[in-house]
Give the backbone structure.
Amino acid sequence: METTESTKKRGSSKPRYKEEYVEQAQQLALLGLIDEQICKVFGVTDRTLRNWKRNNPAFKAALEVGKAVADGKVAEALFKRACGYSHPDTVITQFEGQITKTEVTKHYPPDTAAAFIWLKNRQPTLWRQQVDPTDDNEKPAPVQITVNVVDASIPAPDEP
């Protein structure tokens, strides 16, 4: 009996790639899922996901686009947080049974931690956290400490 492609795959326990995965993969990437999590959603191994990306350019592109958009949103939010930002808001108050809506502008000051993360990632040579151990110019000079032990029960001699 001649084996066809369909009969070969019928006995296989590997999930088969489907074109509908392109849209699903992009949506999962937009939600911020990493490849390991996407594998779990599709019920496949990391190797299978890599094969799907290699053999299906639309699938690979969908993942790349989704991840780029998600990363861009996070980068934009981090940038706003680092620099500080303002946005319109509505404050609802109640006084003596009267409900009042007031349009306001909320201000958020710059966040130094967010600024440091941004700069450390964008300009790592200028904003590194650790001192390079191979840089001999940054070694501190040795410190000499002298300790004088004094018995507190003996009165100190009068100094002239």
About this structure: Residues 17-130 form one domain. The helical segments are 5-10, 21-30, 35-42, 46-55, 57-83, 112-122. Strands lie at 85-95, 98-108.
